[in-house]
């Protein structure tokens, strides 16, 4: 592999760690499978997530050796990384602030200070006046190796704030109540999901408790001033395969308990005034039936796929009895138009939908049924619907950006149809959109499907196959990667890179079918689509195969592992962040936090031999072979409950054992973080700079200064 020579000088005095092999064999469905690196899984992982110091010393020694090796091979990029960090930080307005959102007598927002890693949560009188800091994220994070804020939510009477934080990276959040007037904390509850929902009286809140396996199992009601041991259990979920959350409504009339997996939904309701603490089922779970509720005064609006509405439709039902028998259709299903979400206001119903791969916002007058769409001009763009904290309003907010256009926040009047720019993303170091080009390409996959590919490049970049390319992909859980403005990407683009996003199957970029044809038995479509995107970029002379660096994280990291096995010659390098690469082993371990809820996405190999064989055929760790793998960088977090650290650790060990190319395999693990990496906005940039330096090294562009 030509690119391995880029690492030759830096690896002369550094030998990669060699993980010991401990024989282990498991038989399922009469199929035997060996796993010599199974010992890397900490047996006490539940305890270790709460206290990382409990990690087995032998495992810790191996992981630290991996970090030392990665540092040695990347030592010659130190100056480059400093330059990249400086550039990316220079594109962030350090003292940035949000546009406060009105709610009753106040307006709420966030702001940062120069050098600050975490936001301050603030409020002002609605029409302007003295600013009050409700929560200072930097102050709360002081002295902690890791700190991440959960939700921050003010009470209906505006006297208190409920906020959550995680100090380990394991996503066991502590909820705290703070006085908005005196800034002192009172009630504190551990092992929660990170958010809570206030009761209407502001003297109590509902929250989700996580069990020892990090699963949301119980909804409780906490009365302020009472010990957590006295909290009232409102609902307990017995099915390990279901996620659970609790939320409220704009009118503060209802508490909603959502129980769901990736295919099925069930809602329970109880009045927010606590007059009845027995939640009532809207419609009992029915496999494959999904629905979401949105309060609309005397009705509920229901976004659902009922009756074969794959791309969803909108129904309504009276609040008095919103059971499925009373649902009445108001926005019919339209194949190819995927309704993503809805928001209800006194006079209007707003929906965010996607058609022909692009998002749009549609406003519906609730009385007349008349609809209009908010129009946009660019070829590829991203939209976000901000909504409002208030119900009785004609104004909503939405954000707009494209790969060349910084994010813009607009206020939109649903009656007058006037659009007012509230804020435009400031790029302090400067940004001239006219210097860049963004395009939407269509790549033909193995079965004839056309895969959208969004690309960004500098207008002076030669399109003769010589440009390096970072190709990003995800392709799972129906998540679509938007063609939005990414300030970090310009550190590559300004160095002659093409930055590309492959909108592959497994996401919902082209509707619900795009998702369904990229999951379970058809999962390999996701991988073929990504390989096809790379081939298209090469055949149209945007780049060449040995200059494409593929990147993906989490399930996108699984994509990286799969394409490395299927087509190692298609990529000059691979960056796999928190990669879900040991799919079969994880789906066979029903003690892990996400395994039972993930079976609808991947299949259940415990119960089904067909599912076992399907997953075994693509699971990256299980398919590592004697192949010419390109240089690979894997990144992970020690306390990650979503993709456990031992998945990439095992993958890296096996890659080194089998690779025939001699190309280096690097593994960098953050010993103080979890799935999302470093928590501060600037410390996170250091991790991005490391990944980008790897990409630049593979491409032979390690000069710190920008050049094309």
Automatic annotation (TrEMBL):
Residues annotated as domain Peptidase S9 prolyl oligopeptidase catalytic: 484-701
Alphabetical list of InterPro entries matching this protein: AB_hydrolase_fold (IPR029058), Pept_S9_AS (IPR002471), Pept_S9A_N (IPR023302), Peptidase_S9_cat (IPR001375), Peptidase_S9A (IPR002470), Serine_Peptidase_S9A (IPR051543)
GO biological process: proteolysis
Entry keyword annotation includes RNA-binding: no
Domain Peptidase S9A N-terminal intervals: 16-425
Residue ranges the record marks as coiled coil: none
Keyword field contains Hydrolase: yes
Pfam families (UniProt xref): Peptidase_S9 (PF00326), Peptidase_S9_N (PF02897)
GO molecular function term, any single one: serine-type endopeptidase activity
UniProt keyword annotations, A-Z: Hydrolase, Protease, Serine protease
Family (UniProt): Belongs to the peptidase S9A family.
PANTHER family, sorted: PROLYL ENDOPEPTIDASE-LIKE, PROTEASE FAMILY S9A OLIGOPEPTIDASE
Descriptive protein name: S9 family peptidase
Source organism per UniProt: Notoacmeibacter ruber
């Amino acid at each position: 592999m030509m690119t391995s020579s880029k690492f030759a000088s830096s690896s002369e005095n550094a030998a990669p760690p060699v993980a010991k092999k401990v024989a282990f064999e498991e038989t399922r469905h009469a199929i035997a499978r060996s796993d010599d690196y199974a010992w890397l899984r900490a047996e006490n992982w539940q305890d270790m997530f709460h206290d990382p110091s409990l990690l087995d010393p032998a495992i810790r020694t191996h992981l630290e050796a991996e970090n030392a090796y990665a540092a040695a091979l990347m030592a010659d990029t130190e100056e480059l990384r400093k330059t990249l960090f400086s550039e990316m930080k220079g594109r962030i307005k350090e003292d940035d602030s949000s546009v406060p959102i009105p709610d009753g007598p106040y307006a709420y927002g966030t702001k940062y200070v120069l050098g600050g890693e975490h936001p301050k949560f603030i409020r002002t009188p609605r029409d302007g006046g003295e600013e009050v800091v409700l929560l200072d994220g930097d102050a709360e994070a002081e002295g902690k190796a890791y700190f991440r804020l959960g939700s921050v939510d003010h009470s209906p009477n505006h006297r208190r704030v409920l906020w959550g934080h995680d100090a380990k990276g394991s996503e066991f959040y502590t909820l705290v109540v703070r006085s908005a007037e005196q800034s002192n904390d009172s009630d504190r509850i551990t092992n929660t999901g990170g958010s809570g929902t206030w009761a209407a009286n502001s003297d109590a809140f509902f929250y989700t408790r996580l069990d020892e396996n990090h699963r949301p199992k119980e909804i409780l009601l906490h009365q302020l001033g009472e010990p957590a041991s006295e909290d009232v259990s409102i609902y307990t979920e017995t099915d390990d395969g279901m996620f659970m959350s609790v939320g409220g409504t704009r009118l503060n009339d209802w508490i909603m308990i959502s129980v769901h997996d990736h295919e099925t939904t069930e809602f329970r309701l109880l009045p927010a005034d606590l007059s009845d603490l027995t939640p009532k089922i809207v419609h009992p779970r029915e496999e494959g039936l999904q629905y979401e509720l949105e309060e609309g005064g005397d009705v509920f609006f229901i976004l659902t796929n009922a009756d074969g509405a794959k791309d969803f439709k909108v129904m309504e039902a009276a609040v008095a009895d919103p059971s499925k028998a009373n649902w009445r259709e108001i926005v019919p299903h339209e194949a190819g138009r995927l309704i993503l979400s809805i928001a209800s206001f006194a006079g209007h119903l707003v929906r965010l939908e996607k058609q022909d791969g692009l998002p749009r916002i549609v406003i519906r007058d609730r009385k007349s049924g008349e609809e209009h769409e908010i129009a946009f001009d660019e070829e590829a763009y991203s939209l976000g619907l901000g909504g409002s904290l208030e119900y009785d309003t004609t104004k909503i907010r939405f954000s707009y950006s494209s790969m060349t256009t910084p994010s813009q926040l607009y206020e939109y009047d649903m009656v007058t149809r006037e659009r007012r720019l509230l804020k435009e993303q400031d790029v302090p170091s400067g940004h001239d959109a006219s210097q860049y080009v963004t395009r939407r390409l269509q790549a033909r996959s193995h079965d004839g499907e056309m895969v959208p590919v969004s690309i960004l490049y500098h207008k002076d970049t030669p399109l003769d196959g010589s440009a390096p390319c970072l190709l990003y992909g995800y392709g799972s859980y129906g998540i679509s990667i938007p063609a939005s403005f990414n300030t970090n990407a310009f550190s590559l683009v300004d160095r002659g890179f093409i930055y590309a996003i492959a909108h592959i199957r497994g996401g919902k970029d082209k509707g619900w079918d795009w998702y369904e044809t990229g999951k379970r038995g058809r999962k390999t479509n996701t991988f073929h689509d990504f390989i096809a995107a790379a081939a298209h970029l090469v055949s149209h002379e945007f780049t060449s195969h040995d200059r494409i660096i593929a990147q993906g994280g989490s399930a996108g990291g699984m994509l990286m592992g799969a394409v490395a096995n299927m087509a190692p010659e298609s990529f000059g390098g691979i960056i796999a962040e928190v990669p879900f690469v040991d799919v079969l082993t994880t789906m066979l371990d029903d003690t892990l936090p996400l395994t039972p809820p993930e079976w609808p996405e991947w299949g259940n190999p415990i119960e089904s031999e067909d599912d076992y064989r399907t997953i075994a055929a693509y699971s990256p760790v299980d398919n590592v072979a004697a192949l010419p793998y390109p240089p690979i960088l894997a990144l992970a977090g020690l306390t990650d409950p979503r993709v456990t650290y031992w998945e990439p650790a095992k993958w890296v060990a096996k890659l080194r054992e089998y690779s025939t190319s001699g190309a280096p395999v690097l593994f960098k693990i953050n010993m103080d973080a979890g799935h999302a990496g470093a928590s501060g906005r600037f410390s996170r940039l250091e991790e991005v700079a490391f990944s980008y330096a790897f990409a630049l090294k593979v491409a032979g562009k390690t000069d710190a200064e920008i050049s094309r």
